[in-house]
Write a structure and sequence with these properties.
Largest sheet: 6 strands, antiparallel
Order of helices and strands: HHHHHEEEHEEE
Radius of gyration: 22 Å
Structural class: alpha+beta
Number of strands: 6
Helix content: 25-40%
Strand content: 15-25%
Number of domains: 2
Length: 147
């Protein structure tokens, strides 16, 4: 289903006219009509507004619908020492490395830290444990070079 059709259905479901959507979004009625009927691109600065209308995210509206399979750190920790896409409420989404024993990464920065965990390196400080990580996911494969 196109974004235009999804917007149209959301407007019908929420009983919003094109005029009301135009007023609320700050876009002219003609642009709203074009988005709905011709599936014209939504201006970048309005993606968040339309995402909230559709109970969606700006990435999904842009067509970036790759589903990330998040794993709960407590229920299913990583088994391989590697880099992962991670989430914590404090840090948001970050890329972090996982180690089965942090002390094995660096005996100075992680002295006595025999537990597993996520970490990153900062040049001025050294290795830092990324505490509060609640979920992790595999990173996507790197882009393929075209020769």
């Amino acid at each position: 289903m196109t974004t235009g059709k999804r917007i149209h259905l959301a407007c019908v479901k929420k009983n919003l006219s094109v005029k009301t959507v135009a007023e609320l979004s700050g876009l002219p009625e003609e642009k709203i009509e074009a988005i709905i009927t011709k599936n014209e691109k939504i201006p970048d600065e309005k993606l968040s507004w339309f995402a909230s209308l559709l109970d969606s995210t700006p990435s999904e509206i842009c067509g970036h619908t790759t589903k990330i399979e998040w794993n709960d750190v407590k229920k299913d920790p990583p088994q391989i020492e590697d880099s992962y896409l991670c989430y914590s409420e404090e840090l948001g989404i970050i890329i972090s490395k996982f180690a089965k024993c942090l002390e094995a990464v660096d005996k100075y920065d992680f002295q006595g830290e025999k537990h597993s965990g996520f970490y990153h390196y900062e040049g001025d400080v050294g290795y830092i444990e990324d505490e509060g990580i609640t979920h992790w996911a595999y990173l996507p494969a790197p882009p393929i070079k075209n020769n």
